[in-house]
Amino acid sequence: MSQKIVVLGALLLLTGCAANTPPRSAGAAPSGERLVEPWKTDPFPSTYHAYPGVPTLITNVTIYDGEGGRIDGGSVLVADGKVQAVGRNLAAPAGALVIDGAGKWVTPGIIDVHSHLGDYPSPAVKALSDGNEMTSPTTPEVWAEHSVWPQDPGFSRALANGGVTTLQILPGSANLMGGRSVIVKNVYARTTQGMKFPGAPYGFKMACGENPKRVYGAKGREPSTRMGNIAVDRETWQQAVEYKRRWDKYEKEGGDPPSRSLAMDTLAGVLDGKILVHNHCYRADEMANVIDMSKEFGYHVTAFHHGVEAYKVADLLKANDICAVVWADWYGFKMESYDGIPENLAILQKTGTCAMIHSDDENGIQRLNQEVAKAQAAGRRAGILIPDEVAWEWLSINPAKALGIADKTGSLKPGKMADMVLWNGNPLSVYTRPDKVWIDGALLYDAHDPKRRPVSDFELGQPGEGDVK
Amino acid sequence: MRALLLCGVAALLATPAYAETIAITGGTVAIGDGSQPIPNGTVVIRDGRVVAAGANVAVPVGARVVDAQGKWVAAGLVAGFTSEGIVDGEGIDETYDGAAGKSVFNAAIDVSTAINPTNQSIAVDRTWGVTRAVVSPEANNSVFAGQGAVIDTGADDAPVTKARAFQYAELGEDGASHIGSRPASYVMLHDALAAARSASRGGDSKDALITRADAAALLPVVEGRMPLVVHVERASDILQVLSLKQTYPSLKLVLLGASEGWIVAPRIAAAHVPVIAAALGDLPAAFERTAATESNVGRMEKAGVTVAISTVDVSTEGGQRNLRQYAGNLVGIARVPGMTGLDWGAAFATVTSGPATVLGLDGEIGSLRPGRRADVVIWDGDPLELSSAPLAVWIDGVAQPMTSRQTRLRDRYLNPQEGALPKAYER
Questions:
Q1: CA torsion A282→A169→A201→A53, rounded to 10°?
Q2: Which of residues 105-134 of A touch B (CB under 8 A)?
Q3: Is B351 in contact with B323 (CB distance < 8 Å)?
Q4: Which phi and psi (to 5°) does residue A94 adopt?
């Protein structure tokens, strides 16, 4: 019985909204039936659906496949929402739209692994400031999706100017444990559930360093120091270990179900490997502390975000199978970013560490391809040569892996979601912009068609509505 | 830190004599005055000034020749609105001299007294071709923030090009948040300017709400001897600011931000008011910026407005070196249907002669036209392109060191693993 329920739970995670009858979660269980461990269900399932597309063949185009492959003068065929084929000379199926890609580039859609669109939306007024539940240093019970405002005009800019097709929206970094993230497709919907990436695992936001100790130190409570940060984290992880033990025992032996804690559900999900840890952490020494802490309690850090000092411990990150999520050249805007250097990504790449770009910024998300170009160039001047098509992995397959969705998107491999950008030139040039963007095979941005340019509710009837932004 | 200072000293000692004549030949020359790049040009500098730049420029006898074939020779970048040299890191409050906290003074504040030429960002931006910067204080509890400066980024102890180059005022949403409301901001502005006039006539200013020092500092503003840089974003706020000229005809206005400037661009042009714009702001980040678009700069330029760009309202965390990237984007968007961008020469001017012109300093800095200070950068490619970087930088004709804390950290950690001794011994 319990095994069957576990299998059902796992299936649900894979298929997201597909199941019509949700498993019996801890919240609502008829008497006599065994409850599923509560972190294995999603009470806010994705209702995203792909929009219709037409079979499309782009010919004579330069292709970066997102996994380090490159084809010059190649072709890409998408149909039924999926990549069908990538090659040199593909024939157009009957009825397919054929686009001559001469002088243009095709890449997988960009994935931003760190965004606050929706939870810190535009306009940045207090009433919409929903990114940090700044009332306790540990709030694993909050979920970013309950803050995301799906009318954020920022989504449209990230699509049209940035070619971003998937993003992870995280809680802020005021708290040591900030809450769950949500991964969305960059397709406007009336509800956040309507944007949720089907089948994507949850992420869990943690933060090192200055922010938690500053915020809670100012309130006269723990943590007010870096040692306080780690102490509060460890106390909380210990509770989570015990919580999970109680649920595991119940699942095995039955009896009265343990009492439920939404906070502990999230942490137990992490300990169970179902929820992926995205840890804001600037400094090399702090990353090392977190790695040891994760081993103490038996969880894995998927990625360190804002790792401006990741280059100093690139070997340590590689040895522990942790990705580094970084900016191209941000530095010096706070003490813990003082040692940022533009060669960070290149040094990580040279060391063989999983690395990628991120924005953390509603402007930066519009130019992630340009950020990669700068990082690549900085590497070249330091003697680290990274081909364009390999640098593109920092925008595609690497973030897809860090989000646990690499089997679905993040490269132009047949069978994957047709999340794809046609660029009007070399996408690592400052002079290049998206020409067209498809998500699940649907054309959702076309520079030549004002009707394929989304305008959020907020912008309707405002000065500049529908302008080319 | 000691290493950095030593490095700076070594560079100074190594610099050529001031009187040396240098001819940089064979490169693509970008003058910075709005003109298009000139292939195979020559730039001649002498005594810290530009002698000539362009095609068919003769190499003077006895000049030291620097071969720039296959490279670009460009005017140094001028950062349009910054806190360069007055903070060691935005969040490192202890080091910040941009906001005056509880000071009773505002307009009288003179930011040039705080410039620290050894701070990290100056060296970093210098190695990336930024040779001058407009530095401004930040408004605190007044409409007026104080007097900004124009500085150079040279590795020497004399950073100030022009102290008290402008007065800075907030009259939009930011101003209202300090003062209470937009109308209250205007009352404060008018009252302070009246006090300045009255004080200059020896009038009784006992009931004035501003200090004697602040009133004195505003006199050159009222008399049009000092530009007044006003931060506003909304189209209606811009029109309000332009109308100040009716009351104060001598006022030398400059608009900062002006995200909705494109809506009233002909009016800005007609008033001959230049703009330091938010480079690529395209989000309704505030209600006063609902019509923001990347086309703002291009549309204003097309209407005849003199436009420079700055990192105001866009991310500053990468440093002022990214201004060239923003300028490059303004070229790129010209190819997007419905967008208005700039041609290359005009885009480059927004980060060179543009900020200088806005503050009336284009006779002195911001381009490679004859007589200007010799701020010259040799780039390994198109300066606006992401793959390019400077190979050499001169400021006032003095060759600059091409190292910074960042290059030192890079060299130390190119191989992250520790060797026979800890990293602290590697330098």
A1: -130
A2: 122-125
A3: yes
A4: -55, 130
Does some domain include residue A277? yes
C-alpha distances in Å from residue B358, one per residue of A96, A328, B307: 54, 31, 8
Pairwise CB contact (< 8 Å): B291 & A464: yes
In 3D space, the residue among A384, A390, A309, A318 whose CA is nearest the CA of residue A347 turns out to be: A384
**Under a CB-based contact definition with an 8 Å cutoff, are residues A16 and A47 in contact?**
no
Query: Does A87 map to a domain?
Result: no
pLDDT at B315 over 90: no
Q: B391 near B407, Cβ under 8 Å?
A: no
pLDDT in tens, B174-226: 888 888 999 999 999 999 999 999 888 877 656 678 999 999 999 999 999 99
Residue A31 is predicted with a pLDDT of 58
Q: Inter-chain contact B286–A370, Cβ cutoff 8 Å?
A: no
The predicted-structure confidence for B231-242, as pLDDT tens digits, reads as follows 999 999 999 999
Domain with CATH 2.30.40.10 in chain B: 2-74+380-403
Q: How confident is the model at residue B11 (pLDDT cuts 50, 70, 90)?
A: very low
Q: How confident is the model at residue B18 (pLDDT cuts 50, 70, 90)?
A: low
Say if A129 falls within a structural domain.
yes
Q: What is the C-alpha to C-alpha distance for residues B297 and A362, in angstroms, rounded to an integer?
A: 20
CATH no., domain B2-74+380-403: 2.30.40.10
pLDDT band per the 50, 70, 90 thresholds, residue B140: confident
- With a cut of 50, which residues of chain A have pLDDT below it? 1-23
Chain B contact present for A448, CB below 8 A: yes
> Chain B: residue nearest A347 by CA?
B414
Q: Which chain A residues have a beta carbon less than 8 Å from that of B260? A: 463-464
- Name the residue with tokens 């490997």: A273
- Who among B263, B338, B414 is closest to A468 (CB)? B338
**Looking at residue B176, what is its pLDDT?**
83
- Alpha carbons A296 and B294: distance in angstroms, whole number: 49
Amino acid type, B110:
D
- Give CA–CA dist A95/B387, Å, rounded: 41
For residue A133, what is the domain's CATH number?
3.20.20.140
Q: Do B331 and A343 touch (CB under 8 A)?
A: no
Name every chain B residue with its beta carbon within 8 A of the beta carbon of A424: 335-336
**Closest chain A residue by Cα to residue B282:** A469
Facing residue for B91 by CB, picked from A333, A432, A448: A333
Q: What ipTM does this complex have?
A: 0.94
Residues of B in contact with A334 (CB under 8 A): 89-92
Parent domain of A171: 109-411
pTM, to two decimals? 0.94
* pLDDT of A231: 98
B410 contacts in A (CB within 8 Å)?
Answer: 341, 343, 347, 382
> What are the tens digits of pLDDT across the range A189-234?
999 999 999 999 999 999 999 999 999 999 999 999 999 999 999 9
